[in-house]
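Researcher: For the record, we're logging two predictions in this thread. I'll number them. Prediction 1 follows.
Model: Prediction 1, sequence and structure:
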Amino acid sequence: MTDVVERQDEGAFRGPWPDVDIPDLAYAGYVLAGAAARGDKPALIDGPSGRTITYAGLAAAVERVAAGLAARGFAKGDVFAILLPNVPEYPLAFYGVAAAGGINTTVNPLYTEDELARQLTDAKARFLLAAGPFAAKAMAAAKRAGVEEVFVLGEPDADGATPFSELLAGGGQPPAVAIDPEDDLVALPYSSGTTGLPKGVMLTHRNLVANIAQSEPVLTTVEDDVVLAILPFFHIYGLTVVMGMALRVGATLVTMPRFDLEEFLRLHAEHRVSRGFLAPPLMLALAKHPLVAKYDLSAMRAITSGAAPLSAELEAAVAERLDCFAAQGYGMTEASPVLTGSPADDTQVKHGSAGQVLPNTEAKVVDPETDRVLGRGEIGELCFRGPQVMRGYLGQPEATEEMLRGGWLHTGDLGYFDADGFAFVVDRVKELIKFKGMQVAPAELEAVLLSHEAVADAAVIRVPDEEAGEVPKAFVVKAEGAEIGPDELMAYVAERVAPHKRVRQVEFIDAIPKAASGKILRRVLMAQEAEAPA
């Protein structure tokens, strides 16, 4: 294995790669620097229809979006919300906003009206772009949040919405905006951090430029690759690693607006997809589902799995079945997201690990109770620092200070680095639930449960699930005299949250364990759950 450069004075160390140069550039210009010169090469292909946008078309469309926004008075620092599935228009909008000096807040299209309105309000979004099927929800939430104008893909059914084509059709030159990459924000995705409700993660142009520059020598997407974009662009993994890096190097992106396994496999075969970025549920399907055998996936050369830990056995099963390389990386929204990675080379990887620390990045492991620095092989909280780490949480100075205390990003994940510098993630300090790689905040579900008149108290924890990784389980104290069953409560929550946040199990108990301060002791419930008979 490659030697790791130690920093004994701070207990910090680096990975095996030399530091890379991080250009002092605005993000859109960095990603699309070679786009116009690539001409007719396909940049984006809509999987269901085959509709294609070339690199030259992408570059021109981004300029038109920036010009159209400027004509509407959209200025540097304004916030633009994107409520789209993975479609070719997503990067047109995202990089158009970035080129205009704006800030993109990316939203899960499956959010309810309440969830959408909450994010739009917190982000102070000025404009919103939504896909046609979400137009009514978008208009209602926009009205509640004070959004000035709602753009819709296609002909809008909702009164008052503007077709996105009008924004694209605007003539004129894009605005000349002076951007300070170090300080100016370009993306505002939402994350629950280590606990609590979702918070706006302030990512600068430099954060995202840095993370692509750091990832390129490790994750090795190249110009000849075809990448299937099934990971959602609203999630930082899809936004940076899939969309940003692929377009930066000149690869072709095939977009999928919704997941269907057979369509996923068909597109792999039809487009000769060669580079995969997936999450554990998809890896499980590739390893075990009988449909996989019906399609030619021989063009696939390498797959990187992220968003949640994956066993070495499942890695090996995918690699053997597809006759390709498979490994893992690790990151989080607050780090743009990549912190560790595995190169697509079996001689430089340790399967089952999350890889090694990226260039320009330092790591250490600390005792989560005392912050004492731990040694190799000792399990503690994984901490990182580097140019990809966020500026902080929007309007949340205390949460920012807690997350970035001492100048280190405290991930809330428990793990260790072995003697060769490979990271292994084993558990979480944080209470966050990862359902198919998507964040679910227990506090958010507890608030929904407590809004039901039959619920006197509630706590939500994560429980293991083979397909999803983890699912939310609720412990509920019934109100005096209340008659309600688990199915009714799960249906109540399902009506009020996005599908990935739904409570999947309910258990009624007499009291929720709490500390003297009133804080829910979820660890107690998790310990009880682990000891319960299967």
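Researcher: Logged. Prediction 2.
Model: Prediction 2, sequence and structure:
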Amino acid sequence: MATAIVHEWWANFGGAENVTRAISDLMPEADVYILIKDVRGLDTGLKSRKQFESWISKVPGAKDRRLTILLSPLAYRTLSFKKYDLIISSSHTFAHTTRFPNSRNANYLSYVHTPSRSIWTPEIDNRSSILNLPLVRDSLKLLDKNLGRHVNAIAANSFEVQKRISKYWGRDSVVIHPPYDIEVSKPSYENEIFDIPYKKKSYLVAAGRMVGYKNFHVAIEIAKRMNTPLVLMGSGPLESDLRQIAKEHKSEVHFEISPNKAMWNHVIENAKAFLFPTYEDFGIAPLESIALNTPVFALNLGGAREYIQEGINGRLVSSLDAENFTQAINEYDFDRTSLNETISQFNMSSFRSKFMNWIDKEG
């Protein structure tokens, strides 16, 4: 069966990329189409030998996501003129609208990370200012909903996202939580050298894309209030702003930009706590933290409520007030040697089984 997998922006760090890798592993003979890579020549880590980047990647200014969003509805209808039997999209902004001209009768399935936050929930994530124009946003809402009507079945990455799919698109979906591969995420550290200037359990950590809705400025404020160092890992457009905030707060913040997986895991495993002060669709990094037996302190919104077990593997905090986070961390006093046992239902084996059962049912 000729199969294609469609992905949107490919970034260095992200749960959506992890999902596409997992799907590609299950279907190594599938062709993979990527709208655009954040970094030209970026290694996707995909096992598929056939990978294609869309024509948008050649458009001047294509790295500006505001432009890319506006071009996306056309791009996903012209990604390929090959004929396929099965087309699977991994979508958070328009990828679910994919429809190839010569594959109009193919079986289209979509794994949805969220209906586009920029379009439907800008109060959560408003990185695309051009969408603040009512006419633009309303037009994109119509396209986002109507151009995906041909999709035969939808899987949501969380119950939070399932509710959004029903509310905004009027579609049913099943929940298949994204995968966390415990074994892959715990490599041997024997031959690694880590340059972290802090003792074990003496620092806080926050990690992910350095963008506005992640609220890393709150993590910096928490660290200041606790008089505790913070390691901030990841990459993104707000790196310089966050460095300036740390400087102004006179906070001790150590930046680890684009760390490899071993460094990522080492920093999280040896931290006092993982900070997650964001309204996220689900959140893979906090799951990785729990698997490494480091408790997570998360904002009590979104997907975090689907795996944080109050007082066991972390705490849910009622607001973004840094003082509330500080109090929750100071009050946490539980055995952290077996936190990983609380998230076995989110491992890679579970994802593979649920995903392939979904494909078999809908295929």
